[in-house]
Amino acid sequence: xxxLAYFGMWLAVLAPAVVTLQVRVLGLFPDNATSVVGTVxxxxxxxxxxxxxxxxxxxDRCTSRFGMRRPFIVGGMLVxxxxxxxxxxxxxLATLIVCWSVAQxxxxxxxxxxxxxxxxxxPDEQRGRVSGLLGLCQFLSMGxxxxxxxxxxxxxxxxxxxxxxxxxxxTLLLAVVLRDRVRAERPATRYGVKExxxxxxxxxxxxxxxxWAWVSRFLLVLAWSTLMTYQAFLLIDRFGYTPDTVGAQxxxxxxxxxxxxxxxxFGGGWLSDRLNRRKVFVGLAGLIAAVGLPTVAFAHSMGLxxxxxxxxxxxxxxxxxxxxxxxxxxxxxxxxxxKDLGVFNIANALPQSVAPAIAPLFLAIGGGSDxxxxxxxxxxxxxxxxxLAVKPVRSAR
Length: 397
Prior knowledge:
Mean pLDDT: 84
Helix content: over 70%
Strand content: under 5%
Largest sheet: none
């Protein structure tokens, strides 16, 4: 039920992020769709950045009789579903930004507390495999999202609504069966400005291993985000797809990627638990992606493009199979698990804002606005730096 709920949550988040939001923007702003998507995605990602650690901190302090995690998982999914449905009726930029920002805030509040279940419930010797399963669920949801959206093409309400409602339903099922921790004692300190600000901070000097793990994830996710944010536009500009047909092809691309993720996720997680090593797999993941992304950059045939995507997927799978397990092993304070994981998840949300912000710099190389070769070569560079950044982590193998 944990894996199913995790899949459903990410289906609700990624269906609009990967396909539906782009389709909606293309319908409303056909002449400047890339810049509008960049603006909406960047603002929404800032709210995602805020929601993760803030909700995590509140969850760690929660004394509800319903548990520490359950109220935030259910509440976040309810608000996110409502905001996603409103996106279908958005007709201007301001409404798009507000609805997507609320959805990102709510969904990431749910995500922060759902990730903490890994620390709460999963024993050390199984974290690599469970981390791999969760990573697989996250990226599998992207492939499924594209097919779901394509199935309901032409009905914008169902394109937004079906993934959102499915995500809500699966998390409600988890809420029913979850043996959630109930905090009996009240926190020693009152929740004030200091506690609020501490939600977004883990001392990098006192916790250098956590900091380097954060930097590694940020750079690697920046590489993935660069590919995923602009893949629909690349397919349209380079391979001749239209806004009406690109959804189906994105589904094909994501299915190939998920195939690579499946192989890397299960293999990486199993080997990581067997060898009791995490760092080497994170580094390997970045190097694998650094091979796949240049292949995408220079691909002018769909076969070569899909080959590059499959290799990137393999790297993503290896990374996701050990990334959560690595950070749970080095958490600064187990009593602040959700907050610290929320801070760590900023490295997952922030690249969604940074990628659209910096992408135009690379797209404009050569005087145009569609230099995808330069963009994906830059993404390969981010992946290499992410692989190197995990080396200084000292409190895990």
